[in-house]
Specification:
single chain; about 450 residues; mainly alpha; globular
Length: about 450
């Protein structure tokens, strides 16, 4: 029992650390430009440019997920050539997508600023940031693949060390370019570009050192009879892409509906949503562990160990959600005061404390099921669950409740969205896992 828990924590903890470094780096970037002349424009431009790339990379995060699930199954089956082939196929897709982003950067930039519609000075500054940072796309997308591949190989520490090293370099280059050479927003963008390629080099070096027999330039993944597996990968990626798009639309709708209510509601909801994001960093770590272990044990054909994985990660989700609920109950004012000193906003936020306290217990189940299903490469139920929860539950619930419940209706709809996703995936999981195991056995027999 304890040894299996240690295995879960071994895989989860490094991923949690990696997740936490992302917002910390954003805060440091914000702090640097926030102490410069014309700070208001620079902060706005950094937020605007960052939002564009967050949207792009969030929709393409399937590169990490699908690679992790398939590689974990190949690891469990001890199928070394397929481990290499999964990496090759995913890298080909990553390079192709990054080429598309770079070729289409002009229309992407134009459409983004059309949708956002900021001031001329803000858009001009954000445009400088966008036109530099877009050149990091190949490194960023290939790092998604390497992160997923290492996780699938039951190695969560390597992505953690790469993320920490890359972020430290990013901070150092930021100070060098901005403080040393007097750059402004372009310094922040170039620091991101350099650090992303540095991180990619680290991943390649570690791959060569740890898995010396792997050769990325050979076409093992595209030989006779392998294109069917490429199509399978593309199908998985399309399901996960739809899942990401629907999730982004729900989150964007949440922000838009908040803004339509009042500036005060927008500010309060934006603050309170940080509590959800913070909790998600922890749950994502355990979801990644679920990906690794589920894929590994399915590849080994050990259905009993898959069930054990599900039981353990769900218990960890429940155990971790309880202290978060207690913190959100008893340290609510302290957390809010760390985000704002506006007493009016803090007082208004108290009206919605109940929803913040419900976040952990309602959201840990869909977070962890995502990891289990991705490890099983059963992506269609993930897609179907979020489509049902987003289109048939979230939107109707909001429009039916907003007239008499206002902002409470928005939080109720979002909570219902998470609850329904978790329920559907819980209901579907026995048949989905059995189907995945059958497919894996059929692939072995071929």
């Amino acid at each position: 029992m304890m040894s299996f828990n240690r295995e879960v924590l071994r895989l989860a903890f490094p991923n949690i650390i990696s997740n936490v470094t992302i917002p910390l780096l954003g805060l440091i970037d914000l702090a640097i430009v926030g102490h410069m002349e014309n700070a208001i424009v620079l902060i706005g431009a950094l937020a605007l440019g960052g939002m564009i790339f967050s949207f792009i990379y969030m929709t393409l995060s399937f590169l990490r997920s699908s690679t992790a699930g398939l590689t974990a199954q190949a690891f469990g089956a001890k199928h070394i050539s397929e481990q290499q082939a999964h990496l090759q196929r995913a890298l080909l897709i990553a390079v192709s997508l990054s080429a598309v982003l770079i070729l289409l950067q002009v229309p992407i930039e134009w459409l983004s600023f059309k949708l956002i519609d900021g001031s001329a000075e803000l858009e001009q500054t954000a445009s400088i940031y966008f036109r530099i940072r877009i050149w990091a796309a190949p490194a960023t997308l290939m790092l998604y693949v390497f992160t997923g591949w290492f996780i699938g190989m039951q190695d969560s520490k390597t992505p953690m060390f790469i993320a920490i090293a890359g972020n430290i370099l990013n901070i150092g280059i930021n100070f060098l370019l901005i403080v040393g050479f007097g750059m402004q927003i372009e310094g922040v963008a170039w620091a991101t570009v350099f650090s992303q390629y540095f991180s990619l080099i680290l991943a390649l070096v570690w791959l060569r050192y740890r898995y010396g027999k792997f050769r990325l330039i050979q076409l093992n993944g595209f030989g006779q009879g392998q294109w069917g597996k490429m199509l399978e990968l593309l199908q998985m990626n399309s399901d996960l892409f739809i899942r990401s798009v629907v999730l982004i639309l729900v989150l964007s709708f949440f922000t838009t509906a908040s803004a339509q209510d009042s500036p005060e509601i927008l500010a309060v909801n934006s603050m309170l949503f940080q509590f959800f994001l913070f909790f998600s960093f922890f749950m994502d770590g355990f979801a990644y562990a679920a990906e690794s272990l589920t894929g590994r044990f399915l590849g080994m054909g050990q259905m009993n160990m898959v069930k054990k994985t599900v039981t353990h990660v769900m218990w960890w989700g429940l155990i971790l959600s309880l202290p978060f609920i207690l913190i959100y109950i008893f340290a609510y004012d302290l957390l809010l005061s760390g985000l704002t000193n506006e007493l009016g906003l803090i007082q208004l936020a108290h009206e919605y404390q109940i929803w913040v306290c419900l976040i952990p217990i309602l959201s840990f189940v869909p977070f962890l099921w995502d990891g289990v299903y991705i490890g099983a490469t059963a992506t269609r139920p993930i897609r179907n669950a979020i489509l049902i929860a987003g289109i048939l539950v979230f939107l109707p619930a909001y429009y039916l409740s907003r007239g008499f419940w206002s902002n409470h209706g928005l939080w109720f709809s979002f909570s219902l969205f998470m609850l329904v996703r978790g329920f559907l995936m819980s209901y579907w999981h026995p048949a989905s896992i059995r189907k995945s195991l059958l497919r894996i056995r059929q692939n072995k027999a071929q």
